[in-house]
Write a structure and sequence with these properties.
single chain, alpha/beta, 2 domains, 11 helices
Length: 301
């Protein structure tokens, strides 16, 4: 038996295809729209476009680092009230199987597809780093993550985001008070989740540290409320998100906020997600190390 073929990377795709895929992921193109436009760029036309979409889509098994039933952690689902949101929310909660004393808590906020297997794996990784991780599923009011990325995106578009935002505020309160917590709360989020971390920094004064990965800015008129220390992580080739950074950065500076911004050369939006070809191993490793360093410094005091 020969060695398996290496997984493709972002460098294996035409930049225009990556741009179209970003639009597809974020709901600006449906599947048919992506395939029609990609067919004009890739070798093989329509057949080639279907193959490209399959290659760019997540491979959750390949990216998994911590198995769901790893004996080193405890994992469970729990439901809690969200009176100002959808009424009730569910979250995946992970912690070390054996913890010495109370632990800091990190809220993990998913992308625009709900609590998929990759985000659950992120929560388990945090448990191995001696945190309690709380990963809510914004899709819970609509039945939860459906097990299919296309269906998840379609469901996500049906959410009332004003209610979903309140759900995440409620999730932050639930996380901070969870059994075994030391009362110190951090948050990390990716894409949509990054924007939620920015928002929570303006809404949850108890938030101590936040790491938005390629997330859109908080409302600029609310930046003065931020008390958390923030580490903003950006991809290099991410015009849609990066365009909003200069005014956000100016507002943070004017407010005297504590923040740092990291931008990794040559990377694509989603570079931390190791289930897709946009993953950049070196940049993801550095960004995650910086994330853990911030949480260890600020949440264990």
């Amino acid at each position: 038996m020969g060695n398996p073929s290496p997984r493709p990377t972002a460098a294996d795709f035409d930049p225009e295809v990556l741009r179209l895929f970003d639009q597809y992921v974020h709901g600006q193109l449906d599947r048919r729209g992506f395939l029609d436009r990609a067919a004009r760029v890739v070798v093989g036309g329509s057949v080639g476009a279907v193959a490209v979409l399959a290659a760019l889509s997540p491979d959750f098994a390949h990216g998994q680092q911590v198995a769901p039933f790893d004996a080193r952690i405890k994992a469970e689902f729990t439901e809690f009230a969200s009176p100002a949101g959808y009424g009730k929310l569910r979250a995946y909660i992970t912690r070390p199987a054996q913890a010495a004393g109370p632990l800091p808590v990190v809220l993990v906020v998913h992308e625009n597809r709900g609590l998929n297997p990759h985000i659950e794996d992120i929560a388990r990784r945090l448990a191995l780093d001696n945190f309690i991780a709380v990963a809510p599923d914004a899709l819970f009011p609509l039945g939860g993550y459906p097990g299919d990325e296309d269906k998840a995106r379609a469901l996500f578009a049906q959410l009332d985001q004003s209610k979903s935002r309140e759900d995440f505020v409620a999730a932050a309160g639930h996380a901070r008070a969870i059994a075994g917590s030391n009362g110190r709360l951090g948050a990390v989020g990716f894409c949509y989740g990054g924007s939620i971390v920015n928002l929570l920094a303006t809404r949850v004064p108890e938030l101590i540290a936040g790491v938005p990965f390629y997330g859109s800015a908080a409302p600029l008129d609310q930046v003065g409320r931020i008390r958390a220390e923030l580490l903003h992580v950006f991809a290099d080739n991410d015009e849609r998100i990066n365009a909003g950074w200069p005014p956000y950065e100016a507002a943070l500076k004017a407010a005297g906020a504590r923040f740092e911004a990291l931008r990794y050369p040559g990377t694509q939006h989603g570079f931390n997600n190791d289930t897709t070809p946009r993953f950049d191993a070196a940049a993801a490793k550095q960004a995650w190390e910086r994330t853990l360093a911030l949480f260890n410094r600020t949440l264990r005091g």
